[in-house]
Amino acid sequence: MLVLPPVMSRLALVSTDQRLAQKKEKVLRLIRRSGISAFIEGEQSSYGSYNLLKEEFISLEEIPPGPKIDLIEDAKRAVEDEIVQYRVLSYSFAQGPQNYLLEIGRSTGSIGETERNFRHYALYILLVAVALTTLADLAFSATCWRRSPPLSASG
Fold first, then answer.
1. Please, which residues have CB within 8 angstroms of residue 83's CB and are 6 or more apart in sequence?
2. What letter does residue 32 receive in the DSSP assignment?
3. Does the predicted TM-score (pTM) go above 0.85?
4. pLDDT score for 151
5. How many C-beta neighbours within 10 Å does residue 64 have?
6. Long-range contacts of 79-82 (CB under 8 A, 24+ apart)
7. Among residues 29, 30, 46, 25, which one has the least CA distance to residue 99?
8. Containing H/E element for 95?
């Protein structure tokens, strides 16, 4: 039981990182298929989109040439006069002569919800395992008790 919280926290974080990587691949496929102009139009050199509840965002912006970026970290972002903590995947890539930075984020609050769900499922699984183990022990004990010869009084 003591190991459960840190394991569930790590599992939620790994699950979130995998989802972020999947979304990155999806966005890159869209860019390859439709071109970067579908995201960045006209004189704007960036694109940003937050979902309604600020749980997730996608950001794409032009950046100067530099070292390749490919990392996932926790970061704070200002969204509509509110500071929100996110788990952010940052990835830089070249498209033609220009370099871009793609950032995809998921709020740590929503990661906490995922973690709570994992903990609930793990608790249910543990309770079922304890119940099955107890029933198996009782059945085994009852079988052994019935098969044992009666004790004689003369001993």
1. 76, 77
2. H
3. no
4. 61
5. 6
6. 79/50, 79/54, 80/54, 82/54
7. 46
8. strand 82-95
Q: Do 87 and 117 form a contact (C-beta atoms < 8 A)? A: no
pLDDT tens profile 65-109: 989 999 999 999 887 788 889 999 999 999 888 999 999 999 888
For residues 86 and 75, the answer to whether their CB atoms sit within 8 Å is yes
Give the DSSP letter of residue 42.
T
- The amino acid present at 70, given as its one-letter code, is D
Measured distance CA(85)–CA(111) in Å, rounded: 11
Q: Describe the crossing of helices 108-147 and 4-34 by its angle, rounded to 10 degrees.
A: 130
Q: What is the pLDDT of residue 140?
A: 80
Using CA atoms, how far apart are residues 154 and 30, in angstroms rounded to an integer? 88
More confident residue, 154 or 36: 36
Residue spans per domain, the chain: 4-112
Burial 69-104 (b: 16+ CB within 10 A, else e): eeebeeeebeeeeeebebbbbbbbbebeeebbbbbb
As given in the structure block, the two tokens for residue 7 are 């394991």
